[in-house]
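Protein modeling request. Please complete all fields; requests missing the sequence field cannot be processed.
Requester role: graduate student
Desired output: 3D structure, token encoding
Chains: 1
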Amino acid sequence: MFLKSLSLINYKNIAEHTFEFDSKINAIVGKNGIGKTTILDAIYHLAIGKSYFNPLATQNIKHGEDFFVLDGQFEKELRTEQILCSYKKGQKKILKRNGKIYERFSEHIGLIPIVIISPSDVDLIMEGSETRRRFIDNVISTSDPAYLSTLINYQKTVAQRNALLKYFAANHVFDVDNLAVYNEQMIEMGKILFEKRKYFLEQFVPIFQKYYQIISENAEEVSIIYESQLTENSFETLLALHLQKDRIAQFSTAGVHKDDLVFTIDTYPIKKYGSQGQQKSFLIALKLAQFEMIKNQSKTLPILLFDDIFDKLDAYRVQQIINMVNEDVFGQIFISDTHPERTEKIIKQTHKTYKIYTL
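Delivered output (359 residues):
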């Protein structure tokens, strides 16, 4: 799996540009704000159907324009996959595979395996539980379309149940039978999501710990703890216990949509007790574990995007990543950096083919 070419029109701060890529390593270098991250995000956008940094399509249009177009030629299993994504203000975003429009973007998930490592990943540590749920859901959905479908339907059901609770409050009424319809749907789908998340983390955490030890030179112990209300109670019990709270709050306060991941270092929360270096190593290990899980499940080497990553790592951690490249752990790699000389020096140590693009 690799990206052969990419064309951008009116995407973020790039008016128009076309690239022909190397099948192994590609470096985008230049000053800050010139469009390096934009190119990596365009690749991610084609693979996933939305921007990694700003999922609102209208905010991905170049200032002063009213549309954008992204066009990528991928090679997968010796065949070409043309993916085109376009959006015009006031219209629906369009995603095409080989000229055919997707009816649902979810059908595209998993076709182009991809992982991005970015400074913005610190949000996984610093932000709320929704950010971490989104991470685990995205990884599982890449190789499990049934999970993605269940997740989408569960979220719709929660939204409908919330709307019903608001209706009850606004009209001073309550219909337990009507609410029970949504409860049954939430319970059925929620149990599936809970079990799949739990099983996934049982496989994922040891891989994550392996990469952290490689990157940090066995400096400390890290782990990921799955927190779910379903660990202590059945979903049926949870909904019964939270009924009065739900009626007062006018939304569903219990369920797998409240799940969280607790990131720890030597048994303490890394958010409070981890240094910047430890947090960076934690996040890179997290993404490399994501890479390996997707690779194992899809039987394909995902495209790997390193956004400004070498600027955030010390020499030892950079060397460890280079060693993994030399061991053919990765497939096609994209790197963005502000220092052309540093980038080329790092890339040459891999002894792989490469191209450097200066913006």
